[in-house]
Design brief:
By secondary structure, the chain is of the alpha+beta class. The chain is built from eight helices and 18 strands.
């Protein structure tokens, strides 16, 4: 006879299953802070919010650390010391600075010198950082500085951990590469701590990992005119994109736009593009290419994009045409034509 004190086996199993707690559902966690002169926004989908917040704080500290090495505005930074010793002697620098200088040299070769960190020789007469003065420098002042612009004057020694600018008066400025490098460091930190679904945005540099609650991340490309609302969107998983535009730091004078993306061959703002967005797999690569392609102009810039593996691009030209690389056709969603204005 079956005892009435014990439920049937199937009922017991159902009871046990009901007692097992459901794992907590992932939720969206987001934090933001200003670093490297731009808003840095970190987003992750995770069931462990405290761990995400702790990791975000680590990322913020890493950005601050890198800014302390790479900024031209931080007293004692590697770049400040490097510039002060131009033409005098090598200076000790961090491995991160050497890594950035190596990436910059490769980008300069790739873009035939249009990406050139020694545009810093112009930064005292073209002011677009927090010292912006809305003054167009006299052409004679520009001509004096042009011979000081040459990326080949920057040398580094990975073994000795030193860097040297061989030409007096040449100055390095890492504004076109530093944030991309920092974003890649942030990606590594988040992955090391087990996060798989996250988004990092620092100004125009973004990295999207995994999914946005199960769907690819949908990223917008800003209209370079008007209110800068997206004119196109793109879905990305485990990839990066960077946008360089003439609307980020600029001033208008006599109906003409003067912006911070200077052509190192002429010492004046490049004229062929309004914005360039590069889509690839490393943020530092996207950062340098968006700048280099912008200065190359739409024709030569798109030719370069089409020759590079795992690199795509969207260019808004100076006459407001949208040019899309072959690998993005069918993937890019054009919401509307960009606003046409000076």
């Amino acid at each position: 006879m079956r005892s009435s004190h014990f439920p049937p086996l199937s009922v017991a199993l159902l009871f046990a299953a009901a007692c097992v707690a459901e794992p907590p559902a992932p939720r969206r966690v987001e934090r933001a802070r200003v670093s490297m002169g731009s808003q840095l926004t970190l987003t992750a989908w995770t069931a462990d919010e405290p761990r995400a917040i702790e990791t975000f704080e680590h990322v913020f500290r890493e950005f601050d650390r890198l800014e302390g090495l790479l900024s031209v505005w931080k007293d004692g930074s590697d770049v400040v010391r490097l510039n002060k010793s131009a033409g005098v002697s090598p200076v000790p620098v961090s491995q991160d600075t050497i890594n950035v200088l190596r990436e910059a040299a490769e980008a300069s070769e790739l873009t035939r010198g249009k990406f050139d960190i020694t545009f810093g020789a112009l930064s005292d007469i073209w002011r677009f950082d927090h010292d912006q003065d809305n003054i167009v420098p006299d052409r004679q002042l520009i001509e004096i500085r042009l011979p000081r612009i040459d990326y080949r004057a920057v040398h580094f020694d990975s073994t000795a951990k030193t860097a040297f600018i061989t030409r007096p008066g040449t100055r390095v400025h890492l504004g076109g590469i530093g944030k991309g490098y920092a974003v890649d460091r942030a990606v590594a930190l988040l992955r090391e701590r087990g996060f798989t679904d996250f988004l990092i945005q620092s100004g125009g540099d973004l990295y999207a990992a995994g999914t946005d609650n199960g769907k690819p991340w949908t990223l917008g490309i800003a209209d370079p005119r008007g209110t800068h609302e997206p004119f196109a969107t793109l879905q990305i998983s485990d990839g990066t994109f960077s946008t360089s535009g003439d609307y980020e730091r600029f001033f208008m004078k006599d109906g003409k736009r003067f912006h911070h993306l200077l052509d190192p061959d002429f010492g004046e703002p490049a004229t062929g593009c309004r914005s360039v967005t590069i889509v690839t797999n490393r943020a530092v690569y996207a950062d340098v290419l968006s700048t280099g392609v912008f200065i190359l102009g739409p024709d030569e810039g798109m030719k370069l994009i089409e020759t590079l593996a795992d690199v795509e691009g969207v260019i808004v030209t100076s006459d407001n045409q949208v040019v899309v690389s072959s690998g993005l056709k069918g993937r890019l969603r054009l919401l509307r034509q960009p606003t046409d204005a000076p």
